[in-house]
């Protein structure tokens, strides 16, 4: 059986991880990583909690990606030890804050360095958040795409449209369920022993309805680029 890890970054990422833990059908070790002590001490149901907020007083980064990046880098050795021997790591976070947004590219890089297939399940901020949060998110995406084997962005606006009248708690619950479906699909296909591109393709086929974008790592050495299956698939 594959050695699988699902890792969340930041507060909203931890909420999605908790939802995954409730419904998961495939065995995976879960790790929550945050600069916010509330998350790592009581809000997380993960198997392992890694607190990385010593330099920000345990209160999160107040939407500073720079602080999020530094916090992850400061704990590179701890994280590397936690995922030692992993075959696959799925990283879960929402873009727009500081810990998840700034820490994501570094967490992806460290996971790749450890030799694990590395996938990201994430979402851009909702349209009503301040434009600076969206700008920060746009900035990190290329860095994430360059290193991850596959990046899946859930389209949160779809869920807002559909469930707006039921309130934001319902919207967030449905978004978290979509995260869980994508994570499950990645892990199920990993168990079948198929390669990363094929895993991306399977997730595309199963979850296309709520995915905004899928980025598949391009092969190097001038080999052919991934054929575009739809405008979501880059
Ligand atoms: N879908 C969803 N989005 C959320 C939730 N909580 C916050 N967000 C949004 O998700 C993005 C990331 O927020 P957080 O995860 O709280 O940020 P963080 O990574 O913990 O970063 P800092 O707290 O700033 O260090 C922001 O755009 C928030 O508006 C949630 O429960 N569900
Ligand atoms: Mg936070």
Please, could you describe this protein's structure?
With 234 residues, this protein is an alpha/beta fold. It has a single domain (4-228), classed as Rossmann fold (3-Layer(aba) Sandwich). The chain contains 9 helices and 7 strands, in the order E-H-E-H-E-H-H-E-H-E-H-E-H-H-H-E. Strands 3-2-1-4-5-6-7 form a 7-stranded mixed β-sheet, sandwiched between helices. The two termini are 30 Å apart. Magnesium ion is lined by residues 10-11, 36, 60, 97, 99.
Instruction: Give the ligands present.
Output: guanosine-5'-triphosphate, magnesium ion
Element string (H = helix, E = strand): EHEHEHHEHEHEHHHE
The overall number of domains is 1
**Which CATH architecture is right?**
3-Layer(aba) Sandwich
In CATH, what is the homologous superfamily? Tubulin/FtsZ, GTPase domain
**pLDDT average, as an integer?**
93
Instruction: Identify the CATH class.
Output: Alpha Beta
Rg over alpha carbons = 16 Å
Low-confidence segments, ≥5 residues, pLDDT <50?
A: 222-228
Major sheet details = 7 strands, mixed
């Amino acid at each position: 059986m594959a050695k699988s890890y699902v890792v969340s970054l930041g507060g909203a990422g931890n909420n999605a991880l908790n939802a995954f833990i409730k419904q998961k059908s495939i065995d995976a070790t879960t790790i929550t990583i945050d600069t916010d002590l509330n998350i790592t001490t009581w809000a997380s149901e993960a198997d392992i909690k890694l607190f990385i907020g010593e330099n920000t007083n345990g209160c999160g980064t107040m939407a500073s990606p720079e602080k999020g990046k530094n916090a992850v880098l400061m704990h590179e050795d701890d994280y590397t030890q936690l995922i030692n021997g992993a075959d696959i790591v799925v990283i879960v976070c929402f873009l727009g804050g500081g810990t998840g947004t700034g820490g994501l590219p570094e967490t992806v890089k460290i996971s790749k360095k450890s030799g694990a297939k590395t996938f990201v399940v994430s979402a851009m901020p909702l349209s009503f958040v301040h434009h600076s949060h969206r700008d920060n998110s746009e900035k990190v995406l290329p860095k994430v795409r360059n290193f991850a084997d596959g990046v899946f962005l859930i389209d949160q606006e779809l869920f807002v449209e559909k469930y707006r009248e039921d309130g934001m708690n319902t919207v967030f619950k449905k978004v978290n369920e979509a995260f869980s479906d994508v994570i499950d699909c990645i892990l199920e296909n990993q168990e079948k022993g198929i390669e990363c591109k094929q895993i991306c393709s399977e997730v595309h086929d199963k979850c296309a309805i709520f995915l905004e974008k899928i980025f598949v790592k391009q092969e190097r050495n001038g080999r052919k680029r991934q054929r575009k299956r739809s405008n979501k698939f880059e």
